[in-house]
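Encode chain A's predicted structure.
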Amino acid sequence: MVDVFESISASDKGTIEISELLDTRSIFELVFEIVKESGFYSQDENFNLIKALNIDTDEDSLEDALCASWVTMGTNLNTAKTQEEFNAKFALFVPIILKKMEAIKRIAG
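Encoded structure for chain A:
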């Protein structure tokens, strides 16, 4: 999970570019597979939280929606008091971020 933020913070720009977020896709996919195998996503409570967090935004574009989800994820991660809480919050956002990345990929490709 740290790899995602290290790859973004390595940027020498003042703002995060969509391409930088999309470059983290392989890391999100790896985390998704690891978390999925643990059974975390099949727990009703976690599934319902993901559905609740995955509300559509009023953003003008898919890129803006990805950025909004990323910022929301970051805000939530910053409130974690323990590593376990951080990991759980991150895991909840992984499928949401991947869904938005996939939508951008479909439009671009």
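The CA atoms of residues 12 and 93 lie 25 Å apart.
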